Known about the structure:
It contains 15 helices and 20 strands. The protein has helices spanning 5-8, 13-28, 42-58, 81-92, 95-100, 116-125, 141-151, 195-199, 207-219, 245-252, 273-281, 304-309, 316-329, 348-361, 387-410; strands spanning 33-38, 61-62, 71-76, 105-110, 131-133, 155-157, 177-181, 183-184, 203-204, 224-228, 260-264, 290-291, 294-296, 334-341, 365-370, 416-424, 431-436, 441-445, 454-462, 466-471.
Amino acid sequence: MKPSLKTLFPSGCEAYVKACCQSFTEAHGRRPGVHIRTFGCQQNEADSERIAGMAEALGYEYTDNPEKAEFILYNTCAVREHAELKALSLTGQLKHLKAKNPHLLIGICGCMVAQEHRLDDIKNKYPYVDFLFGTASMEKLPEYLAIALKQGKRAFYPDAEYGIPEGLPVRRESTFKAWVSIMYGCNNFCTYCVVPYVRGRERSRRKECILEEIRGLVKNGCREITLLGQNVNSYGKGLYEDYGFAELLSDICKIEGDYWIRFMTSHPKDASHKLIDVIAAHSGDDCRPKIVKQFHLPLQSGSSRVLKAMNRHYDREAYRSLMTYMKEKIPDVALSTDIIVGFPGETEEDFEDTLSMLEEVRYDAFFSFIYSIRRGTPAEKMEQVPEDVKSRRFARLLDTQNRISREKNQEYVGRVERVLVESVSKTDASLLTGRNEKNRLVHFPGDAALIGTFAEVKILTADTYCLTGELVP
Ligand code: SAH
Ligand code: SF4
């Protein structure tokens, strides 16, 4: 018979891990290190910040250097094969660290290992991975760590239930930018996508919890809050009768302060005029807070036929009319989108429809992906487009959007933009890097003391991906 957790840890798993960290600290003169590497989307980033917060509360100290860690965790992504292969290859490289450090625990969590075949891969091919868990159960981290530390046996905890983590400590990467998850999971089952299988059904956080979290962030000087959900437009479904994303946004805007509100991702089938009206009402230049005049609305394909096969529940016309309403209400809105190239059955004509939508909408930016087969999804069984055709179309798509982005960026030259200063530029230490409300990257010379504040920058030059300017005194 398996001993119960209570027998193993009479004073609790948390107390046990804390005691282990304490004795490590006494023996080594430093706290044990924790290092987390995050793959994929912002939701994973947000989850990792909570996992790091829990580890620190247990007695670990965060380190950017895996060589100095006693606990390494990879938070993985499953949306495309490329992300999985990268995570697996980097997991392979952890073997030598395990050999060097007898105290090292290695954990893998996130969407990749929520798939049975990947869980088996880790079990069978990576014997130095100590434990594995789905992120829906991340609040059980003390239990996973306690069992690994006490028993030294490998353990696998795929998500059995999908809850809503509340009240967990969080170690935010930034003091002035924050992710706030408003809902988890997805009910949409787009035929290419693995997310509903690995993140469970949609569930929304209670509005009081979200508002309280934002109030705390604003009080601490946060300048940008990004609301996260796989489909933020269906916020509140199953929880409230008459309270959805538009109402939540309105309530957030009542929390006074000089900060920007972003959100992602909206699904076109649920993006309503009511939502656009709320954005329009709170995105004026004198609004504080301000909903940014930037709207990310994934199109995926410009062909109604392909959209149907993707199970997206809107067609080209419906998407177009949303865009028209958006531009009518907020004429200078910046638009961005996601596009998949080479979805099964995509013909040359379908692809031309996507290109023509790019020309018509004139997005400021986009994220484009070559279709990647996901095991267990309906599109896996559909007739696939040859790789060379996908690559050729992808290159044409990039050329088209890059030209449009370049042209749109040129329009900024001569204007003064409000920029949230983020860091010293990675490529030139004399420059600061920030973003304007429309999410354009802006470089300009300035003092690092400006990081975390809003600055007024006059734009002098522009290229495809960024703007360069000078501070307005
Ligand atoms: N919930 C969000 C984003 C989910 S994943 C939404 O619906 O927009 C982010 C993007 O990855 C998607 O918008 C889609 O463009 C892309 N994507 C998802 N599955 C993919 C696949 N199998 N191959 C290529 N791209 C994919
Ligand atoms: Fe995937 Fe579609 Fe859900 Fe987005 S809405 S997560 S693309 S299934």
